[in-house]
Design a protein that fits this description.
The complex is a heterodimer of chains A (about 260) and B (about 240).
Chain A: H1 22-32, H2 36-39, H3 43-49, E1 54-58, E2 63-65, E3 73-77, E4 81-87, E5 93-99, E6 119-124, E7 126-132, H4 133-141, H5 145-170, H6 173-186, E8 192-194, H7 197-204, H8 208-220, E9 224-227, E10 230-233, H9 236-242, H10 246-257
Antiparallel strand pairs in A: 1-7, 2-6, 3-7, 4-5, 4-6, 8-10, 9-10
Chain B: H1 7-10, H2 14-20, E1 25-29, E2 34-36, E3 44-48, E4 52-59, E5 63-70, H3 78-81, E6 90-95, E7 97-103, H4 104-113, H5 115-141, H6 144-159, E8 163-165, H7 168-175, H8 179-191, E9 195-198, E10 201-204, H9 207-213, H10 217-228
Antiparallel strand pairs in B: 1-7, 2-6, 3-7, 4-5, 4-6, 8-10, 9-10
Classes of the chains: A alpha+beta (about 260), B alpha+beta (about 240).
């Protein structure tokens, strides 16, 4: 596992740091608001939750959950991206969904399943805020705005899973790679990704050679460039030209969740 | 009042069920009927009794893939449980039969004031999510024969019968295969006397054998659903 040195106060092992100093609190507050779900909460709700949101640094390749494992925390990524993988008995695996600043890891918690069917692995190193499983369930039972938001998010996540399944079955590796790059870019502040072709192959559940070939096509078209361990997207429009409809379907669903919800 | 065959409704205590039942209308669902289209509003939810609804994701306007199934263990109209009024998938009747239909408006009211229904449906959503994920994995990694066997077993469980109508073309849509791929897989199962097929009707002859021909995905999903039907706060009956 490729642990990145944790940024001082953001160590995953450190117990919930409840910032005493105002400045630290403001910093934490600004940080957590980079997560779209937390940012969509009414201010009072967010303030109430804030003391229990623990900042953690997630390292590339870190496994947060194994299939069937007990969920201890829910994670709200801000700059990190977590990938949900299904794992077969023979060890083969592929990504079924990604969770970045648009979402939360741990929806099973409030659905009454306290285990997860998939493996959660950090795909892009960065920061997240986590809440204990117990605290999340309390919030959920309180039937407040967080509950409604998380339910809507679950629907978007399920659509993403379904679409990924269909995309994996029917679309070319170049199309899948373009979809994956666009969804990743949407969650990142820059156009540069720390990423190897092996990692991409394991995301898409294909052989490395297929990724090399697909990435070669995109490179030839001037859409991406790559050197060891890094991919730079040179033209988003170029990616849009290569991508299948699956990207737009998933994106629309995420946009919708923050927009037009029915009110229970 | 008899207990409904639908497991979600059966899990609602009698008193609350009496409140729900005036809103539930039996309807007969026809093979091939489309209940929801992706991106379109949901006006009704359905609790299948002996019918079966396929959740399909379509790509490129023609190619589809079944991502989930809803039978007597569940409810079609999941986005409503999650507070969304719009479907993410196409819901297509795959097994004709009856279902109890409820208007979205009534569902919203009853769902809000019936904690037992909420709990059952949240747990169901969790299981359905596991099913969608497992189905994606299965379609990605397993061969046509194992997938077909899985699909037949899942269907039989949900319609409560070992015999049901099905065409090769339909199976191709469900499994994301070409027709010839379905024909090959079905012939292989037939040769081993696991299934028989005539005049559009498929019959499972040897369920145990079909279980062996299927990949582990069938059992994994079955276990998730069984577990989801046992609430955490309830002890299994002695």
């Amino acid at each position: 596992m490729n642990h990145r040195p944790a940024a001082s106060a953001l160590s995953p092992q450190s117990p919930s740091p409840r910032p005493g100093a105002d400045s630290a609190q403001r910093a934490a507050q600004a940080g957590a608001l980079q997560n779209h779900l937390l940012a969509a909460l009414p201010a009072a709700e967010y303030e109430r939750l804030l003391p229990d949101l623990e900042p953690v640094a997630l390292a590339l390749g870190e496994v947060l959950y194994e299939p069937g494992g007990r969920l201890q925390h829910a994670y709200f990524p801000t700059t990190a991206i977590i990938s949900l993988h299904y794992v077969m008995e023979n060890g083969a695996s592929a990504e079924i969904a990604g969770v970045g600043n648009e979402g939360m890891l741990g929806v099973s918690l409030f659905m009454g399943g306290n285990t997860t069917p998939s493996r959660a692995v950090v795909q892009t190193a960065g920061d997240a805020y986590r809440l204990t499983a117990r605290r999340l369930v309390e919030e959920f039972n309180g039937a407040g705005p967080l509950l409604r938001l998380l339910l809507r998010y679950s629907q978007a996540l399920i659509t993403q899973m379904a679409q990924t399944g269909a995309c994996n079955r029917h679309h070319s590796v170049a199309q899948q790679l373009s979809r994956w790059l666009l969804l990743t870019l949407d969650r990142l502040p820059s156009n540069d990704l720390v990423m190897t072709q092996e990692l991409i192959a394991s995301m898409l559940g294909v052989r490395r050679e297929s990724v090399t070939e697909a990435a070669g096509t995109l490179k030839q078209d001037g859409v991406i460039s790559y050197r060891r361990g890094h991919i730079s997207v040179l033209s988003r429009a170029g990616l849009h030209a290569h991508v299948c409809e699956c990207y737009a379907v998933v994106k629309t669903e995420f946009d919708r969740l923050l927009r037009d919800a029915v009110h229970h | 009042m008899t207990t409904p065959a639908n497991r979600i409704l059966a899990s609602v205590p009698a008193r609350e069920y009496r409140r729900l039942s005036p809103h539930l209308f039996p309807v007969s669902l026809k093979f091939g009927q489309v209940l929801y289209e992706p991106g379109k509003s949901i006006r009704q939810v359905y609790f299948p009794l002996n019918s079966l609804v396929s959740l399909l994701t379509a790509v490129d306007r023609r190619r589809t893939l079944e991502v989930g199934m809803v039978g007597q263990e569940g409810m079609a109209g999941m986005p409503f449980i999650l507070g969304m009024g719009v479907s993410g998938v196409r819901a297509l009747v795959q097994g004709a039969g009856t279902a109890l239909r409820m208007s979205a408006t009534a569902f919203r009211v009853e769902f809000d004031r019936t904690p037992a229904l909420q709990q059952a449906l949240y747990r169901y959503t969790y299981a359905l999510m596991a099913q969608i994920s497992q189905t994606a994995a299965c379609n990605r990694f397993h061969d046509a024969e194992a997938r077909l066997a899985r699909w037949l077993l899942m269907t039989a469980d949900r319609v409560g019968s070992d015999e049901f109508p099905v065409t090769h073309e339909f199976l191709a849509h469900m499994l994301g295969l070409r027709r010839v791929g379905v024909t090959e897989a079905a012939s292989a199962l037939k040769r081993r006397n696991l299934i028989a097929y005539q005049r559009g009707k498929l019959q499972i002859l040897d369920k145990r054998g079909l279980g062996r021909a299927s990949c582990s995905c069938y059992q994994i999903v079955k276990t998730v659903f069984e577990r989801s039907q046992r609430p955490r706060h309830q002890q299994p009956p002695a």
